[in-house]
């Protein structure tokens, strides 16, 4: 049986309203049912130097927590980080898309943005982005 290739959206093509896709090489060899768990494990492994980071299943995806505070979500095989007015421009300058979902036929946007592709392969880079996301999560609690 052939293992399906797994691709993740990483940046929005504004002219065409589509996402560019990159192959998630770290998922090769995984079965389709285990892909989400393998991806979440990969993210947690990259974040092991960021502190006590855990994942909890939620709404068909996973919440990523540090010290009990959610700062990231994994949905449909993509990692999104919390943003606020202080950090949003860092995401938008790189063309990273905001997490949206449909509710009663209307698109709803949350304050989470796709992580840059390069951060999924670089522990220090992901920790840097996650630190800002965690700080945004802390600010949103006030």
Structure annotation, total helices: 3
Strand content: 35-45%
Shape call: globular
Task: From the alpha carbons, calculate the radius of gyration and give it in angstroms.
Answer: 15 Å
Q: Helicity level, as a percent range?
A: 25-40%
Number of domain modules: 1
The overall average pLDDT, rounded, is 81
Termini separation comes to 51 Å
The H/E string reads EEHEEEEHEEH
Q: In terms of structural class, how would the helical and strand content be classed?
A: alpha+beta
Question: What is the tally of beta strands?
Answer: 8
Provide the CATH architecture: 2-Layer Sandwich
Q: What is the CATH C-level name?
A: Alpha Beta
CATH superfamily: YgaC/TfoX-N like chaperone
**Low confidence ranges:** 1-33
Strand order of the largest sheet: 3-4-5-6-8-7
């Amino acid at each position: 049986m052939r293992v399906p290739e797994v691709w993740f959206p990483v940046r929005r093509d504004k002219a065409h309203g589509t996402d560019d896709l990159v192959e998630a090489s770290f998922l090769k060899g995984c079965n389709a049912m285990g892909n989400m768990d393998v991806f979440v494990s990969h993210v947690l492994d990259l974040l092991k130097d960021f502190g006590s980071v855990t994942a909890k299943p939620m709404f068909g995806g996973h919440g990523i927590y540090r010290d009990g505070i959610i700062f990231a979500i994994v949905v449909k095989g993509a990692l999104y980080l919390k943003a606020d007015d202080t950090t949003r421009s860092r995401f938008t300058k790189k063309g990273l898309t905001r997490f949206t979902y449909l509710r009663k036929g209307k698109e709803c946007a949350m304050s989470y943005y796709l992580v840059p592709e390069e951060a999924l392969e670089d522990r220090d880079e992901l920790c840097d982005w996650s630190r800002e996301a965690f700080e945004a999560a802390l600010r949103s609690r006030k």
